[in-house]
Amino acid sequence: MDVKTLIVRAARExxxxxxxxxxxxxxxFRELNQASNRVAHGIxxxxxxxxDRVGMFLHNHAEFIxxxxxxxxxxxSGPLNIRLAPQDHEYMR
Length: 93
Description:
alpha+beta
């Protein structure tokens, strides 16, 4: 089962259960699914298409999960280490 299916199923079966806790941020499965849907529509509007590869250059935040779930609906995602030098990221490209 893929991540996209897991979040949609959890939002349907356990909509009010806590899905995400990060510092003061708390989201239910319903809220997380809705947020990742909004991000997915934004990603689509930016031109990301099914099968594209997208790197995520983010610090640890709740938004990381929203973006990762959104990308799982459209593309392949890969977190990039923020501690690496730009030439390292270029090499991994």
